[in-house]
Specification:
It is a single chain. The chain is of the alpha+beta class. It is built from 6 helices and 7 strands, in the order βββαββααββααα. The strands form 2 sheets. A 4-stranded antiparallel beta sheet has the order 2-1-4-5, covered by helices on one side. Strands 3-6-7 form a 3-stranded mixed beta sheet. The protein starts with 7 loop residues before the first strand and ends with a helix.
Length: about 180
């Protein structure tokens, strides 16, 4: 049973828990079929909540919609979505080797490990996607702060938070010395 990759679309998806904590402000997000996306941000910014909404482990607040391809799946239970999620808590089988743990997910999906290509058989672009992702999404306090390629975000951070989170060398304080101003005139 092989599934074709489907696009993922979130429309106005936010999440407020019963205790009133806003974990995710309403966001709109579109991920193309086959695109690899990396969510970045500090602890508590909404990354896991976003992924849980996509997977069906959480439902968005009223008015939020989740689509896989063109199919609305907002109220579809997790077992019917065909979405897989790797948990931070290392859901590993202690009775298996590392290789067996990796191959388990392939077996469940009906794929033979031999069908998977080696890294040296991938194109340069495919290697980059395996190494990181096509697109980076930086989140801050339950909102998307910036989205783009890692290089774009690194070179052109949208704000001070993104510059600080990706790397301090992006924000450089500068002042033009009086002697330089006079020489330019």
């Amino acid at each position: 049973m092989t599934q074709q990759p489907a696009s993922i679309r979130l429309r106005h998806c936010g999440k407020t828990f019963s205790n009133g904590i806003v974990a995710l402000h309403p966001i709109d997000l579109h991920i193309e079929a086959g695109e690899t996306v990396v969510l970045l941000g500090p602890s508590g910014c909404g990354k896991t909540t976003t992924l849980r909404i996509i997977a069906g482990l959480e439902y968005p607040d009223a008015g939020g919609e989740v689509f896989l391809g063109d199919a609305p799946v907002t109220v579809l239970p997790i077992e019917k979505r065909g979405v897989f999620m790797v948990f931070q808590g290392y859901a590993l089988f202690p009775n298996m080797t590392v290789e067996e743990n990796i191959n388990y997910g392939l077996r469940v999906r009906g794929l033979d490990a031999a069908e998977q290509r080696r890294v040296d058989q991938l194109s340069g672009g495919q290697r980059q996607r395996v190494a990181l992702g096509d697109r980076i999404i930086v989140m801050e306090k339950g909102r998307i702060a910036q989205t783009g390629s890692l290089q774009d975000i690194y070179r052109h951070p949208a704000n001070a938070f993104v510059a600080d989170f990706i790397g301090l060398m992006n924000s450089l304080p500068a002042a033009l010395a009086a002697s330089a101003r006079q020489g330019a005139a």
